[in-house]
Amino acid sequence: MSKPALLMTGPMMPLIGEGAAKAFAVHWLHEAADREALLQKIAPEISAICTGGHTGVKTDDALMARFPKLRIIGNFGVGYDSIDAAAAARRGVIVTNTPDVLTEEVADTTLGLLLTTARELNKAEQWLRQGRWAKDGDYRLTPGSLRDRSVGIIGLGRIGKAIARRCEAFGLPISYYGRHKQPDVSYTYHADPIALARNVDTLIVATPGGAETKNLINAAVLEALGPDGIFINIARGTVVDEPALIDALKARRILAAGLDVFWNEPKIDPAFLELDNAVLLPHVGSASIHTRNAMGQLVVDNLVAYATGKPPKTPVPETPFKGW
Asked: Has 236 been annotated as catalytic?
C-alpha cells in the first residue's frame, strides 16, 4: 500500500521530517524550484499538511481548497494563527497543535525576560564585559525592580497560569484579563485590558494571536499602565500596536518593555533597536533542544495518528475529532 501524501510548507527540524517520512510520502514546498508547479502536481493526492508560523505560509481556505483529500493539518507550535481553523472545521479537516509540552519552558523564558527587563541584567553584563566595572565603578542602581510590583496577565490559559505560578513564588500579586472570568482561580479578574493595566504596574501578554486579539495592547492600555509600567510580550507580535508601543517607550510613558515576539518577524521595526528601555529576544520562548524535540515529536504523533487510523492527540478546539 502506498503512503499517504503530506505537504511540508517550510523547513522543519529533522525529527519531524524523518518521523513524517516513515508514514507519508513527503513533499517539501520550500525546496521546489517552482512552487506552483509542485502544488498543481501533488494537489490531488495531499491528505496532510505540516506547517507552522515560522514557515511564512498561511494555510487559509484558498490553500485548503486545492487539496480535495485533505484530512489533517499538523501545526508546529501552540499558536496556530497562521491556519484558518474555522475554514478547516467547515471542510472537515482536523487541525492539531503542540500544547502543554512547551508550557513550562515558555513560562521560564517569560520570568527570565521580566527579570532582565526590570533589573537591566543584559546591560549590567555588558558593563562588565566592556571593562567598565573596573574603570567606571559599579553599574547603576536600576529604576526597575520586582519588589512591590503587581502583575497583570492577559490570557490566563496554560501558559498564563504557569507564568502566574512563578510570579506568585516571587511574592507578586496576580490579576488577569480574558474573555471570561475563570471560576477555578483566585486571581483578581478585570473585564477589559485597560482596567487591568490601570490596576497593575507589570503587564504580561500570553494570549493567542489572530484576528480576535489584533492590537489588543494599544496606546490606551499603555497609557493606563503608566510611567512605572513594565510590559512583557511572550505571545504574538500581532497582539500589540507596535507604533504605539515604540512611541510609549520613546516618550517614557512606560518604564520598559521585554519582547520575544514582533510583527513581521524576523524583520522587526528598526525603531526597536534604538530604544534603551527595551529588551529584545528573537522569539526564543520555547527554544531549547528538550522542548523543541518534545514539540516536534507531538507534531509527528498527531500526523502519524491520521496515517494509522488513530485519534489525534491534540486537536484544536475548533476541530474536535469525530473520526476519520
From this structure: yes
